[in-house]
């Protein structure tokens, strides 16, 4: 029988791969320049160009990159208030090192693009680039309000953290639950970014991106299906408010849900359990 940490392929066959969705990250050594002709406007589609160069100023083509999940270039786009996150995959425009993409801002503020790439044979890196908005925040504007339990099409989606307190620099284990109408765990997760969920967060400094990694059985083919709970690991880079986004795929649709968490300093006393 298939259950947590077990995936099923065609005919209910069990897959056996047991590889964490985890790659090492290093400091940015490449450069990203995103060109926007005019400031971003809420609700208006923006068409942008991205130029990637290495430390010598040479263009970075797809041949120089290893995949990160489903693609070789992931754009993690978030606004100053951390309310609008969009996961975008640019495409080459025909000139070496140049790529194009578009998105529609849902907020009027500045946005930041974290260009997630992995140079061949080297650690992955997140390269930040600022996108000016028409109405940038003049003071701290991070929205720390979030739902700890989301209702979606009759299902209940929530995350439970093991342990009493999530602290900077110390691994924390989270569990993503999707309970269906009959309170049974959801059993139809489709592969996304080499796992059955993709989770990424941003701290309230608007400068730090935080990756999280699912563990357990990983999909081996598009026909594999995963079950909840999906277990993932967070290694907090710093203390502060962390807005994170859970992406999963079901029924051929990508679902993106905002969550939040306060990461305490490393020397903070243990508090109550982190449950919804």
Task: Write a brief caption for the model.
This protein is an all-beta fold and 276 residues long.
Task: Describe this structure as you would to a colleague.
With 276 residues, the chain is an all-beta fold. It has 2 domains: 31-131, Immunoglobulin-like (Sandwich), CATH 2.60.40; 144-263, Sandwich (Immunoglobulin-like). The chain is built from no helices and 17 strands. The strands form 3 sheets. It has an 8-stranded antiparallel β-sheet, with no helix packed on it. Strands 3, 4, 5, 8 and 9 form a 5-stranded antiparallel β-sheet that branches. Strand 16 and strand 17 form a beta hairpin.
Structural class estimated from helices and strands: mainly beta
Major sheet: size, sense and barrel closure? 8 strands, antiparallel
CATH class identity of the largest domain: Mainly Beta
- What would you say the CATH architecture of the largest domain is? Sandwich
Q: What is the fourth-level CATH superfamily of the largest domain?
A: Domain of unknown function DUF4426
Let me know the number of strands: 17
Number of helices: 0
CATH domain fold name of the largest domain = Immunoglobulin-like
Number of domains: 2
Mean pLDDT, as a whole number?
86
Q: Tell me, what's the shape?
A: globular
Stretches with pLDDT under 50, minimum 5 residues:
1-20
Strand content: 35-45%
Tell me the span between the first and last alpha carbons: 29 Å
Percent of residues in helices comes to under 10%
What oligomeric state do the depicted chains represent? single chain
């Amino acid at each position: 029988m298939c259950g947590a940490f077990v995936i099923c392929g065609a005919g209910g066959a069990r897959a056996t791969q047991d590889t964490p969705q985890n790659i090492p990250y290093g400091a940015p050594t490449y450069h990203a320049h995103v060109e926007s002709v005019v400031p971003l406007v809420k609700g208006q589609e923006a068409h942008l160009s991205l130029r990637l160069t290495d430390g010598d100023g040479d263009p970075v083509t797809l041949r120089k990159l290893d995949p990160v999940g489903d693609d070789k270039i992931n754009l993690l786009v978030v606004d100053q208030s951390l309310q609008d996150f969009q996961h975008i995959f640019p495409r080459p425009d025909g000139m070496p090192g140049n790529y194009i993409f578009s998105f529609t801002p849902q907020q009027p503020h500045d946005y930041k693009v974290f260009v997630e790439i992995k140079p061949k044979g080297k650690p992955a890196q997140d390269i930040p680039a600022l996108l000016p908005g028409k109405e940038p925040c003049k003071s701290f504007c991070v929205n720390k309000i979030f739902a700890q339990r989301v209702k979606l099409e009759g299902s209940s989606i929530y995350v439970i953290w093991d342990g009493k307190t999530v602290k900077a620099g110390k691994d924390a284990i989270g569990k993503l639950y999707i309970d269906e109408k009959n309170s049974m765990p959801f059993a139809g997760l489709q592969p996304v970014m080499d796992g059955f969920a993709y989770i990424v967060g941003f701290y309230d400094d608007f400068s730090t991106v935080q990756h999280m990694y699912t563990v357990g059985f990983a999909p081996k083919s598009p026909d594999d299906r995963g079950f909840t709970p999906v277990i993932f690991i967070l290694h907090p880079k710093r203390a502060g408010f962390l807005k994170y986004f859970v992406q999963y795929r079901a029924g051929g649709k990508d679902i993106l849900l905002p969550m939040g968490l306060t990461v305490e300093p490393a020397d903070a006393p243990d508090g109550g359990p982190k449950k919804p």
